[in-house]
Amino acid sequence: MNEPIHRREFVRRLPVLTAGLAACASTPVLTACAGAAYLTPVSGLDGFSIPAEAVRESGGVFIQNPDMRRPIYVHHSESGEWTAVLASCTHAGCQPEPLGNRLVCPCHGSEFSFAGEVLQGPAERALTRYRVVEEGRRLMIRIDGGAA
Ligand code: FES
């Protein structure tokens, strides 16, 4: 169950990795380049707030403050959909990273859509998803009441 990614699988994913790195290199709000930028959100009673433009420009960012064990990945699709998921793999808790059009877990290769759905195991459960509300120039990521 906890097998590493084999060479053939690594080679299969290489184009996705390359695309992810290219997107990373052109990200204007870049603060770290493992796959996406990190933003420190403004914390509120029912969630977090970040500038919408930061996500719109890059396509996706991690938000994390010192209280959070794992960040939340906020994504803006080309069709205009906002999603926010807890970046904690439901298989064994590693942090998935954005690669191409998905989140890929570096530990055992699970893959998730940006909406958190499992695309490939060994993970069997979706990532925890949060509601995203656009309010003016800000995005509110609602963590009250848990998943969206
Ligand atoms: Fe095992 Fe993510 S922790 S696939």
Structure overview:
- The protein has two helices and twelve strands.
- It is an alpha+beta fold and 148 residues long.
- The strands form two sheets. The protein has an eight-stranded mixed sheet with strand order 1-4-5-6-11-12-3-2, with helices on one face.
- Strand 7 and strand 8 form a beta hairpin.
- The structure holds FE2/S2 (inorganic) cluster (FES).
- The site of FE2/S2 (inorganic) cluster has 12 residues, from loops.
- Main sheet overview: 8 strands, mixed
Side-by-side strand order of the widest sheet: 1-4-5-6-11-12-3-2
Share of β-strand residues: 25-35%
Q: Note the overall shape.
A: globular
Task: Give structural attributes.
alpha+beta, 2 helices, eight-stranded mixed beta sheet, single chain, 32% strand, four-stranded antiparallel beta sheet, binds FE2/S2 (inorganic) cluster, 148 residues
